[in-house]
Design a protein that fits this description.
Number of domains: 2
Order of helices and strands: HEEEEEHEHHHHHHHHHEE
CATH topology of the largest domain: Rhopdopsin 7-helix transmembrane proteins
Largest sheet: 4 strands, antiparallel
CATH architecture of the largest domain: Up-down Bundle
Distance between the termini: 45 Å
Structural class: alpha+beta
CATH superfamily of the largest domain: Rhodopsin 7-helix transmembrane proteins
Strand content: 5-15%
Helix content: 55-70%
């Protein structure tokens, strides 16, 4: 966990250094010695009566092409009913396009872009997001309270990981609240308020770390099947936690960087790659657990017990794969196919699938005496002891009392 702590410290430092560059809908972009033939300045969805103001305050071209170089350009556009849609604003430098074989010439520019819809500064697809996030925050908070009530009601069947799952649900709710506030101020002022933006980034970072830690712990069978992580599983945590912190830092930097800057695409590619690596690393414990249970079921006399473990946890493993596959691939494909004003449905589908995944996980691992996950023998010594107790006629009917990792005595019924 020391690695996670160091990663969080680095992320917090980056948050403080990026405050002045928080992403807004009033864009100010400065490019020096630019070699790209075209630059994506921004993408924005305009409703009827939406406006676009572009002010190119400075454009410097090589002196060998022109005599002199301060070309200020500004223009204003208002979009009608037929012109509404999703627009991409690009800066093209034709000299580098025509002479691709030669060395690219250098350009420098300063541009200010202000995009606005009748209701505020948000793009058409982003207008519903503030209400969506605050509504989903209420749903996640309600689910978290129900989960805590369940833990208090069945306190003698609660494991440490149950409280970790509760912390994840509350952190997710808080992250959505700050995300909603962030979009509210962007819509009304054109830029986020620094304090609220920092709170969103912090809770987003914690939520991502808690999610992958929880998935890895459940995937390895920690607490439900065993209490000790193997060396391989510990290495997974040493890889996943720093990578997840890096992925969240990359997301924060992307949110704080203008789309037209060179660093934007660099960190966007880093985020995509690291996120895929994290998802793949999470699946390694799943593969190891299935392989271990399959081998154990054929090499010892407790095949039925191991097969039961495999059957139960295999369902959850499939659910993890489906959740990762949907949120990383399917939802993005749906976003591409939706009309511009309905692209907010992508965020709704991601949040809804996350809620369903949380609810199903809580239901499967709920602290109840009749939960088959919690009834599984915790280690092989328990199985052997049960067999000795039940097979002895003198000790028939005697139950074994087992000490759990939480320091409680749990009654384990024996076969009469």
């Amino acid at each position: 966990m020391a690695v996670a702590h160091k990663g969080c410290v680095v992320a917090a430092y980056l948050l403080l250094t990026l405050l002045s560059a928080c992403k807004a809908r009033i864009h100010k972009l400065t490019l020096n010695n630019e070699t790209r033939s075209y630059v994506d300045l921004n993408n924005f969805g305009f409703f009827p009566n939406g406006t676009l103001d572009v002010n190119l305050t400075s454009l410097r071209l090589p002196e060998k092409l022109v005599n002199g170089s301060a070309y200020p350009v500004s223009f204003h556009m208002t979009f009608g009913v037929e012109a509404q849609g999703l627009y991409s604003l690009k800066f093209h430098y034709c000299q580098n396009i025509l002479n691709r074989e030669a060395l690219p010439t250098l350009t420098s520019l300063q541009v200010e872009v202000t995009e606005k819809n009748p209701g505020g500064y948000l793009s058409a697809a982003e207008i519903p997001l503030s209400r969506l996030y605050i509504g989903m925050a209420g749903v996640f908070f309600t689910a978290a309270m129900i989960w805590v009530y369940t833990l208090m009601k069945h306190r003698y069947s609660v494991f440490k990981i149950h409280w970790l799952m509760a912390a994840l649900a509350f952190t997710k709710s808080a992250s959505l609240v700050f995300h909603s506030i962030n979009f509210h101020f962007i819509n009304s002022k054109g830029h986020p308020i620094e304090g609220w933006a920092v709170m969103y980034y912090i809770t987003h970072l914690l939520k991502g770390a808690l999610l992958f830690i929880t998935l890895a712990l459940i995937g390895t069978g920690w607490a439900f099947v065993k209490y000790i992580l193997s060396d391989k599983e510990k290495k997974i945590f040493m890889i996943v936690i720093p990578l997840q912190v890096l992925a969240n830092v990359a997301y924060i930097i992307i949110e704080s960087t203008e789309e037209g800057s060179t660093e934007y695409y660099l960190w966007k590619n880093i985020l995509f790659l690291v996120d895929l690596i994290c998802c793949g690393a999470i699946l390694f414990p799943v593969v190891w657990s299935i392989r271990h249970l399959q081998e154990a079921s054929t090499t010892d006399g407790k095949a039925a017990v191991n097969l039961e473990k495999l059957k139960l946890f295999r369902h959850y493993y499939v659910m993890i794969v489906c959740y990762i596959y949907f949120t990383r691939i399917i939802a993005i494909l749906l976003k591409v196919t939706l009309p511009f004003q309905w692209q907010w449905c992508f965020e709704f589908l991601v949040e809804l699938s996350t809620l369903i995944f949380f609810v199903l996980t809580g239901y499967k691992f709920r602290p109840a005496s009749n939960n088959p996950y919690l009834q599984l023998p915790q280690d092989e010594e328990d199985v052997e002891m049960d067999e000795v107790v039940t097979e002895s006629g003198v000790l028939e009917g005697i139950s074994k009392v087992k000490k759990t990792c939480n320091g409680r005595d749990r009654q384990k019924e024996s076969n009469l």
